[in-house]
C-alpha cells in the first residue's frame, strides 16, 4: 500500500492534491472489486478478509485514502463516468454506500469521478445505476441467478447490475441450489404440482418427482390405471385392486388391496369353467362327450362341458344323435341319380340302383315317368300340326288342334285334321284357296277378266262405240277414244303397266320406235300396226301403237 501511495504521489502530485485523492480512491475501488471476486459465492471482502454476507449487513468494504473514502459493495455505484470542469477545487469524496453519488468540486478538469452526479462548474457522466438497491446491484461479474425460482427466467451480473439473459430451455426450470447457485434443471411436466411425490403420466409412466420438479426415477406400467393403483407402493400394480379376477387352473383368484398379488376366491369344477371375466364359475352346458342333432348338424359336447363341438353337417333327415354319425339315407326312401332310381336300405347306410325302362326318366322321389313337359311328347304331333303331343299326368297323349292354320298347306285344323274349303264365289278363275283353280262360271254376255266376271265388251285396239261414259262398249278398265286421226278404239285406262306408255296422260298403249313418221311398225301388234310419235316426250324415237 505504501508503494502504491508513493507511486501515486510521484505521478499525480502531493497527497494533499485533489487529483491525487481522486485517483487513490479509484485505485482502491478497483482493488476492492478484484479482491472481492476471489471470495466464494455468498461472501464479500472486508478489511482484507472474505466474510459471509450475513456478517456484513450492508455487504460493503470501506477504505480511507488521504481524506477521500470509497465504499464498495452490493449497493455501490457502477463505474465512474468522466468529469469535466475548470478551476481549483477541494479534495473529492468518492460515492458512498446506498447513496451511490459523488461530487467533483469546481476547477477539476478531465478526471474520473466514482458514480453519481457532478456539481459546480464540473460535470460528471453517470456510469451505472446509482443507488439501485441490493436487488439490482451485484458484485461478482458473470454470476447467474434465477429471476424467480421455479420459472425459466435467469439474470446475470454485468457491469455491477443484474441483467436478463437467455432463459432455460422449454423443458427446464431455473433452480437455486447451494450457496445461492442457479442452474437449469430438466423437469417432467407430469411432476409439476407433484414435487416431492409420486405421480403417473397419461401413458402409464410412474414418476418419482424431486422437489425441483425433476424425475429421480420412473417405471413403465402397462396402463395408467395400474400406475395409479401402485402409487402407494411406489411400483406398478400387477392388477386392479379388488376389481380384477384371474384363473389359476380351476382356481378363481381376486387381486389384493395393493394390486401386487392375487388371493383365492373359489375352486371351479374344471379349469374351463373358471370365468375370470364374470368373476365366478360357469355352469356346465351339456354332458361331456354326448352327441346331439341341431337340424341336420351333428354336434358333440366338449370334454370340458362348456359347449358343443361341430362334428359334421348331415343330409336332410340323416343326422343320427344316438349313433353319433350321419345316415347316408332314410331307410326305404327313394331318389334319382341321372335316369336311375336309388332306394335306401333298411340300415340307412347304402343304396340300391335300378334304371327306368324305355324312354322313361327318373324324377322327384325316384319315380319313372314318360314325360314332365309337352316337349317330351313331340313325337306324337302330326306334320300338319292338327294333332299335338301333350304331357298329362306324366304320360304322353295327343290333343286335336282347332281353328288354327294347317302347317305347310292351305286349310284350317278341324277335329285333328286339316280341312280346306274351296272359295270360288264371284270368281271366274284363279286360285280357289285350296291350291286349285276356280272354273269359268261367267254368265252369258260376260267374260272373265282378272278372275272376275264382267260384261263382255271391246278389247284394246278394237273399234268401239262411244257411250255415256268414256268406256263406251269397251271392256272394263278401258276407254273408247280416237287418237291420231283414227276412229274410236279401245285403249287401257291409267295407270299404265311397266310395258306401256301414257298417251296424252289419258290412256295407255304399247310403246314403239317409229321407222318412219307415223308409219307401220312390226313392234306393234297386228291390231295396232301403226307407230305414232309420242307427243308428250317430243322425241322422234319414242312412240306408241295405235290401230
Q: What is the topology?
A:
Layout: H1 2-12, H2 18-36, E1 43-46, E2 49-52, E3 60-65, E4 68-73, E5 83-84, E6 123-124, E7 144-146, E8 154-158, E9 161-165, E10 172-176, E11 182-186, E12 198-200, E13 205-209, E14 215-220, H3 224-229, E15 245-248, E16 251-255, E17 262-267, E18 274-275, E19 280-281, E20 291-294, E21 297-301, E22 308-313, E23 319-320, E24 325-326, E25 334-337, E26 340-344, E27 351-355, E28 361-363, E29 367-369, E30 387-392, E31 395-400, E32 412-414, E33 417-419, E34 446-449, E35 452-455, E36 478-481, E37 489-493, E38 501-503, E39 507-509, E40 511-512, E41 530-534, E42 539-546
Helix pairs in contact: 1-2
Q: Could you characterize what this model shows?
A:
- With 547 residues, the protein is mainly beta.
- The protein has seven domains: 137 residues, no CATH class; 37 residues, no CATH class; 36 residues, no CATH class; 36 residues, no CATH class; 46 residues, no CATH class; 36 residues, no CATH class; 69 residues, no CATH class.
- It is built from three helices and 42 strands.
- Strands 36-37-39-38 form a four-stranded antiparallel β-sheet, with no helix packed on it. A three-stranded antiparallel β-sheet has the order 7-8-9, with no helix packed on it. It has a three-stranded antiparallel β-sheet with strand order 12-13-14.
- A hairpin with a 5-residue loop joins β13 and β14.
- α1 packs antiparallel against α2.
- The chain is elongated.
- It starts with a helix and ends with a strand.
- The relative contact order is 0.03.
